[in-house]
Amino acid sequence: MAASAPIRLGTRRSALAQAQSGHVATALEAVIGRPVVLVPITSEGDTNRASLSEIGGQGIFATRLRDALKAGECDFLVHSLKDLPTEQPEGLIIAATPKRVDARDVAITRGGTPLHALHAGSRVGTGSPRRIAQVRRRNPRAEVVDIRGNVDSRLERVASGELDAVILAAAGLFRLDSDSPLRREELGLTEWPTAPGQGALAVETTTDAPAELLAALAQLDDEDTRIAVEVERAILAGLDAGCQAPMAAHAAVTGDSIRVRSVVYQPDGDRRIGIDVTHPLDRGYIRPNGSGNGADAADGADPMRAIRDIGTSAAHRLLDQGAADLLPRE
Fold first, then answer.
1. pLDDT tens digits for 229-260?
2. Which range marks the domain in which residue 53 is found?
3. Over the stretch 143-191, which tens digit does the pLDDT of each residue have?
4. Which H/E stretch holds residue 243?
């Protein structure tokens, strides 16, 4: 990569993906002093219109992008972290996790009726098994409609009256700067926890990327976000489930402690198993010698092991309570 050449950022073609990649591109330009250009890439998740619950979520949005990165078609990638499988491919590293935005889900309706108060037979759209289970718990009278599509198409289905509500990620609406006149109900994380990594981005590159790029990407990293999502994803990995499992995990760092909430749902919403625990943090394990996330990974060190252990422990507690009986196996 020539010192004066633009840095190529691989991204999905959707408006949301390009919006969030644009935020990262602007931040990197400010750090490195070089232009960053977007390289749109079409993933299987963008062309396969089948339900995510049918085709599975493991890597459907990431595989094609990662192939492009390995082939040298781009220099780094930006993913929605919740879409990434928990196993990191050989030769690639998550070089940064920028500061997470709102991790909540929101219910979108025409008139502002809360989700729990929608009348019997109301049609609520979502393609996520977790959200399907949560809707069925929140309002058993509602009919859940399995949908796909971008944010604008989902909002239009509510505006037209085809659906009475849709469940969306608050982060997506924020990054798109959506000004829809439809009404939003923010769903609190205590009773409605969301997918591991929701609201966070993963900036990925190759382990042999130029030192200049690794160092610049490391400056985009937010330590508290990285700690939280490492715990959340360790729970998912420990459950041996997948990106589309009916489970939720959210971790929040406050000072030198981390609060972890995780719930596994029966797909029909009838049962759930959850934990809510707080752990102390020893930040000395996280960033030894002041080195950055990308540099640590490239050197073969594992500064996040103790952090992942918190998530693994949470997964074991869920399994001890019978969570495996609620999870479909991939």
1. 999 999 999 998 766 789 999 999 999 999 99
2. 7-101+195-326
3. 999 998 889 999 999 999 999 999 999 999 998 877 788 999 999 999 9
4. none
Please answer whether residues 248 and 193 qualify as being in contact, where contact means their C-beta atoms are separated by less than 8 angstroms.
yes
- Report yes or no on 82 lying in a domain: yes
0.85 cut: is pTM over it? yes
- Terminal Cα-to-Cα distance of the chain (whole angstroms): 39
> Final residue of a domain: which of 126, 156, 187?
187
Asked whether residue 27 is domain-assigned, the answer is yes
> Is residue 171 a part of any domain in this protein?
yes
What is the number of structural domains in the chain? 2
DSSP string computed for 268-290: TSS-EEEEEEEEE--GGGTSGGG
68 and 173 inside one domain = no
Contact in structure between 218 and 224 (CB atoms under 8 Å): no
Residue 72 in this model has a pLDDT that exceeds 90:
yes
How far apart (Å, rounded) are the C-alpha atoms in residues 217 and 77?
11
Q: Are strands 36-41 and 7-12 parallel, antiparallel or unpaired?
A: parallel
Q: Which of 161, 187, 213 is the last residue of a domain?
A: 187
C-alpha dihedral (75, 81, 85, 87), degrees to nearest 10: 70
Q: Catalytic residue positions?
A: 83
Verify that 180 and 254 share a domain, yes or no: no
Q: Say whether pLDDT at 295 is over 50.
A: no
Give one word for 33, left, alpha or beta, with left for phi > 0 and alpha for psi -120 to 50. left
Q: In Å, what is the CA distance from 98 to each residue of 14, 33, 178, 243, 254?
A: 20, 18, 21, 20, 17
- Asked if 75 and 115 sit in the same domain, the reply is no
